[in-house]
Design a protein that fits this description.
The chain has about 550 residues and is α/β, with parallel strands linked by helices. It is built from 17 helices and 20 strands. Strand 8, helix 5 and strand 9 form a beta-alpha-beta unit. It binds ligand NA7. The site of ligand NA7 has 20 residues, from helix 5.
């Protein structure tokens, strides 16, 4: 079917393009959404701001960029042929390989014909009389669609901090979340890196090998676990593939974070010192994010958490030779795991190199950036190039950039001024037929994103199919259900240690952003069950309206 032939029978004359669904974004969420909606026979247009598919993996091309979830698990499960045939080369896939995978999926499933690249969605307004959305794009077009799906990603709105003098810096400035396509060679250059989250921690060891001198400006020391990355052998891939049905089932239904791993049945304080230490040592040697699942109470009990945090602090002190640098690198202002734990390759060891300096900008914040230096503590650190590894306006930033107006002209930004409000992270009351994939209020960034993406896409597809079969024109979250859900998300978060950190989960990295805990922490298995029950009860908590009801209501 051509993109313009809608089965809804709408007129697609030039100047009045109309689709059943407009999807915003062609990352992993947008691509799978398109694939599934085509299965319903719908006309779909995907708009993607980037020059190709891949979403966050299209933009985050900095040296050392990799996924922190293992490649065999950070991959689609919807096609068994795909998961059986794709050969991941390493335990943790590097960014270029993930991007190749995204391109392979686009080609394999013939997705490109319905994806319009280099095009932003600027505005979307709900037309209450038609029960449809008018969507304005950066190429000056206006299209209409019955549904809009925001597949805009949680970590896609790169954030450049407002640092005095930055615009007057004479060297090159790069942002990890918006990295140039050409190879950047730092050989022989003095480089400054601002930011020590996952991105900074991944790129520091790589740039340290090239730069004549690397100065790392650290505001918050982070916990990081060695990745122990290595090439995957064919035998390892085969063993994994043979177990895929169970691995995927477990990740979807039982795991909290969408990752197949052991489920601990003990708390950290149930073991004696020696036994606990041995378990931490074993996980440290294995490497990766699952360090946090040694025990079942590390995210809940501060005393338990301290045992893991102390272990990692000791490891840092063992690796880093200069005691003062080691001390600065030891995180001390948040429980381990309450900020996204990092996974690194030789990050701490990089500080043993003579060409790497760590500068504490917590005690002495950056005063200004001059033409060729970063000034802090009254001292100028000369640099030829600056790398901003300063993160994203996470979870809501990309949605907020689109001017979205729902019922009665209310904008989503107005509604979310005090923090995002959604029902199940999927819809926001007052914005009918507008779905969000991995939105605030869903497990999203606390999970293996692809597991959460597939669950949301499947749910949305089923929901649209249900509406069409029963003749419903519009669907929207009801306010009471939404308020309950927002309260529940908040309540669950506050049973954990997560809110104790000034993290981007809380919006704390953006000056002025309301601080509420955005992702749902109840776990992907529990969350999936809730979503399934809602659907089984005829989409409880959502209101669906048929065309006739709408018209009758309007004329009465
Ligand atoms: P993060 O995790 O948000 O890290 C950003 C880093 O930049 C963090 O160390 C910040 O310190 C620092 N930062 C931010 N603004 C400033 C200013 N103004 N001055 C100094 N330092 C600053 O982003 P990443 O890109 O590393 O990772 C994002 C996610 O991508 C990651 O969690 C994975 O899921 C993948 P702060 O901690 O705020 O003190």
């Amino acid at each position: 079917m051509s993109a313009l032939q809608s089965i809804s029978g709408k007129n697609n004359a030039p100047g009045s393009e109309s689709y059943d669904v407009v999807v915003v974004g062609a990352g992993f969420a947008g691509m799978y959404m398109l694939h599934k909606l085509r299965g319903l026979g719908l006309s779909v247009r995907v708009y993607e701001q980037g020059g190709d598919v891949g979403g966050t993996w299209y933009w985050n091309r900095y040296p050392g960029a990799r996924c922190d979830v293992e490649s065999m698990q950070y991959s689609y499960s919807f096609s068994d042929e795909l998961q059986q045939q794709w050969n991941w080369s390493e335990r943790y896939a590097p960014q270029p390989e993930i991007l190749r995978y995204a391109n392979h999926v686009a080609d394999r499933f013939g997705l490109r014909s319905d994806i319009q690249l280099n095009t932003r969605v600027d505005r979307a307004a709900f037309d209450e009389s038609e029960n449809s959305w008018s969507v304005a794009t950066s190429d000056g077009r206006a299209v209409s669609a019955k549904y809009v799906v925001l597949a805009t990603g949680c970590l896609s709105n790169a954030r450049t901090p407002d640092i005095k003098g930055l615009s007057g810096f004479k060297g090159q400035v790069y942002h990890t979340g918006h990295w140039p396509h050409e190879q950047i060679d730092f050989t022989g250059r003095r480089v400054g890196v601002i930011g020590t989250g996952s991105s900074g921690i991944q790129l520091v060891p790589v740039i340290a090998e090239q730069a004549s001198h690397l100065t790392v400006f650290q505001r918050t020391a982070n916990f990081s676990i060695p990745a122990r990355n290595a090439a995957l052998t064919e035998a390892e891939r085969e063993a994994f593939r043979a177990k895929y049905p169970e691995i995927r089932r477990f990740a979807r239904e039982e795991a909290r974070n969408g990752i197949y791993t052991e489920m601990p049945d003990r708390g950290a304080l149930d073991d004696g010192d020696d036994e606990r230490r041995a378990k931490y040592e074993q996980r440290w040697s294995r490497g990766g994010l699952t360090f946090m699942s040694v025990y079942n109470n590390l995210a809940l009990d501060k005393a338990a958490n301290d045992t893991a945090a102390n272990f990692v602090r000791e490891k840092i002190a063992e690796i880093v030779k200069d005691p003062q640098t080691a001390k600065l690198l030891q995180p001390n202002n948040h429980p381990i795991g309450s900020k996204r734990i990092c996974v690194d390759t030789d990050y701490f060891a990089a500080f043993n190199r003579p060409n790497v300096t760590l500068v504490d900008i917590r005690s002495n914040p950056i005063e200004e950036i001059t033409a060729n230096a970063v000034r802090t503590g009254g001292k100028d650190y000369q640099v030829d190039a600056l790398v901003l590894a300063t993160g994203f306006d996470a979870m809501t930033g990309s949605v907020a950039k689109i001017d979205i107006s729902g019922r009665n002209g209310q904008t989503l930004n107005q509604k979310w001024a005090a923090g995002p409000k959604t029902y199940l992270g999927l819809m926001s009351a007052g914005f009918p037929n507008l779905f969000i994939i991995t939105g605030p209020g869903s497990p999203s960034v606390l999970s293996n994103m692809i597991v959460s993406i597939e669950q949301h896409v499947d749910w949305i597809t089923d929901c649209i199919g249900y509406m069409r079969r029963r003749g419903f024109e519009a669907m929207e979250a009801n306010t009471v259900a939404e308020d309950h859900w927002v309260a529940h998300v908040n309540e669950v978060a506050h049973t954990t240690l997560y809110p104790q950190a000034n993290s981007w989960y809380m919006g704390a990295n953006i000056p002025g952003k309301p601080q509420i805990f955005m992702p749902y922490i109840g776990g992907v298995g529990v969350y999936r069950q809730i979503c399934n029950e809602v659907a089984a009860k005829g989409y409880e908590g959502f209101a669906m309206t048929a065309a006739e009801t709408q018209k009758m209501a309007a004329s009465s």
